[in-house]
Predict the structure.
Amino acid sequence: MAHLAIASALAPRSVRAAWAGPRGHVVAQEKFGRLERIDASTWALISTPLTGDRTTLSNGGIVAGRSGVLAIEGFVSPEGARWLALRARELTGRWPTHVVTTHYHADHVNGIAGYLDPDARTRPEFLASPRTRELALRPDQSADAARADALNSSRAVLDSDQLDLGDRVVHISNMSGHTASDLVIEDRDRAIVFCGDLVWNAMVPNYVDADPQALRSAVRGLERPGAVTYVPGHGALAKTPEFTTYALMLDAIEAGARAAHAAGRSAQEGAAAFGLPDSLGEWVLFNSSFFQRAFEAWYRVL
């Protein structure tokens, strides 16, 4: 069985290193995460919550052009979003002009109000899918007025959109799988893909709201030829080999769920007996229930 650890400060050093090791030049670092340069005008924020600091929790990033700066993700707290906005101003000379949130989960959207700079004469243009906005503004979600203002004012991304930043065009695609609506942000000329939670690197994803068949289809749709940099929703920066391993891991979970279902086992029983193959290497479970959630998601469609 592949090496598996529950994500915590007690996780084995090898697992923590595989999950959190930098892949690019680190230009800023805090206990909660680090900002890595992908190229001269693209940076990925890699969150490191195994330290216990969850200011950001999810990954995100900065994509800069001659006439605009895109910040990706709202994170779990306004302090996390404001930290990324301040780094954008330091690195590019301007506050983010655009902000996109990939989906409605709290760790990606709850801190979006941190991008509302009280000293700025203009505010960023927020982008989200209508479904993300709807789910993020449910009564059982955060009641923060500034957060609601940012989401309510967001430009709707329906199927696909393009953002012209002056000397580069960013493509935004509305997919599904992790949730009912997952935005993917891509610079096709530079082979950089911000995947949201459709992709996790060396971490088993959370299937709590997942449609596993749509997730499988979306991940296959993100396969690109040549050398590609993938920014996952959680975990370290990924290149094509890590992305391929992630896709194989999803296939292994599907096979395990199908076998358990065919054998008449409950999702709980099947997940308890399941293990990833050794060939997939080391993986982190952010929550001990994640295999059971994955099996339950597959049982819903079997």
